[in-house]
Request: fold
Amino acid sequence: MPKISCSVKQCRDLTLLTMPDGSLLVTACDSLGGIGPKAQDQVSTAGYVVGRFASRVPLMEVMAAGAKPQVLINTLCVEMSPTGKEILKGIRDEIRAGELDIPVVTGSTEENVATCQTGVGVTVIGLVTPEGQLRAGSAAQDDLVICIGKPKVGPEVDLADEELADLSTLHHILQLDYVNDILPVGSKGIAYEAKLLANTAGLTLELGTDLSTGLSLDLAKSAGPATCLLCSLPPDSWLDFRQQVHKPLT
Reply:
């Protein structure tokens, strides 16, 4: 059997696998623990909500990089019924909310021992075709860095909260041709991710004037399950961006 030559590298929180035909497999993963409907969970919430947010993070990371999600793998550290079924329902509804066509959702559950605390891992594999382009590192000099949504974590996180970035918002931003790089914010906070966005493009971040209408953000606060997004765009596109995106913008 001939040896297939592939190269693997890390970019931000993504693992990139270059295939022989020039296509790129983009892998992202996220985990969640102590949040759910179990007796010893530190944050009490429905399994359905767990599924929505646990899958949102890696889906956002793959999509923001310019890849099309192909498969989602869930590793549920709970029994299939009833908790696992509720989490899986949330995962599938999150895929639908993002207007995604993922042919395979696969994974496993814990059926050997009883569990008293919720644990979930989700991995998403996306594809950038040879004709496509990876977004990561595409910020340009003098771009504005815009935060969409507000950082929230733990009990602050609510599916109905209009201040949170979501897959529908990301899907819309991906259609705006003047937006360069996009990066979801996680537990390390806005300032960390904004510097990373700049550094990936060989640039430096300069914190300057707040273009929002009085919004104040804690730049060090965890954004939990990607409750906000960063994107870079040319200054002359800011006014159009404000009209296009109906979320808190800073």
